[in-house]
Input
Amino acid sequence: MTVGIDGIEVWTGKLRLDLAETFAPAQGENPGKYTKGLGLYASSFPDTYEDIVTMGANAAHRLMDRKGLEPEDIGRIDVATESAFDNSKPVSTYVGGCLEQVYDGDFHHANKGERKFACISGTQSLDDAYNWIQAGRNRGRAGLVIATDTALYARDDPGEATQGAGAVAMLISEDPDLVELSAEQGYGSADETDFLKPQQQFPSVDGKRSVQVYLARMREAIEDYESVVGKIHPDDYVLGPFHTPFPGMVRKAAALAYRHFSRDTEIEVSLAEEIGRQPRREAFDSDEAFREAAAEYTDALTDTDTYQEWYEDVIEPTLKISREVGNWYTGSVHVARVAGMKHALENGQNLTGERMLVGSYGSGAQAEFHAETIQAGWAEEVGAMNVDEQLADRHELSFEKYERVHDAHNHDVESDVDRFTAPEAEFVFDGWGRMGERKYTYVE
Ligand code: HMG
Output
């Protein structure tokens, strides 16, 4: 049986903050840190009537409508988020409630849940839906997986540069139109304290360490994956969507991945004249000396035409949306998948039958790798998405407006900020109920 992603929709927060033009000058920083260093041009933010429920429900509504589905076609709703506002009632119940406002049927026989493991829980939710179908428990129904987050940091935290907000809705089914998920996976997982939110809204982050932990866990996951599928060659995969907290992070990860994949291949041999062979640990007296030589080799490798061509084809396309929206936490790797396939469609590439190497990551920390085989319906699926319109329609924030929006979404600040955009044919946050629950309405 083929099981995988049948369709995807994204929903971006409706506000846009330009990092180079607006944020950097206000912070007294060089715009190059954002555009060149982090690789980010803009962040997306939710308007005052948007939150993780509205963004998730709106993405899911668009997906269900486009695929011609009714609630009885859905057997489970899994929401992955690290921005939940309730320790008991899952966000998926709110999303189900929203969708029931616009469909005749209901989700009373759908299994609903919420997954937490920082950014990797979106991929873990895909696993849950995949396993449920493979186990034959789905009664012919599909699973709805929604990754939704408002990735905000405290004001003046270094992470403020990488903020973002949006949702990705994915339909998991038998005989999928978009991609088949591989049964094979690799994991790298360890008890880390690089990024966490112990009963607080904004994360405590050890930013520099988080970068090292990301690389260490991704490496472990690759090795574990190779222990299942055998050695990977750089040409095995047409795209490499990785978790993208900011594109500069993926630039570092891709260099290490390529060094690893090209070791002991004809690529290493053909580059030897230009940059030498890769350093081997046994040739060095200490770990430190080896690490230094490996870092030097990696720098030289990334300057070669061979590497740059691979990067332009396999990695760069996956970063194109992220550059415009920032980190969407649980949705980020799924945005990278969309970006890569969208770029291929726009450039007339035929991806049918090709494979992607998908690398997910969540702080705390865990990485996972699996492969996805692109299905015949991919071009129609990706072509039906309206990502460019959504990005272009965002309201541009001045720095002063950004400060008000940040306050509006800060649970510790009393604020009374008017909305910046007018909602149309979408779910909106509509105030509080008698037990402190959040209320939602569909606006025509
Ligand atoms: P920072 O101190 O603000 O920035 O922190 P920086 O000074 O390190 O500069 C960033 C890069 O820009 C550097 O590049 C600079 O050299 C370069 P690098 O040396 O690293 O290659 N740069 C410039 N380049 C060109 N022209 C210039 C210029 N100026 C500087 N003028 C940091 C950066 C990432 C630490 C910070 O933004 C942060 O704390 N972010 C939040 C944590 C994060 O995103 N970590 C990533 C890995 S953890 C992860 O992915 C999990 C996560 O998604 C959460 C989850 O799982 O739930 C975050």
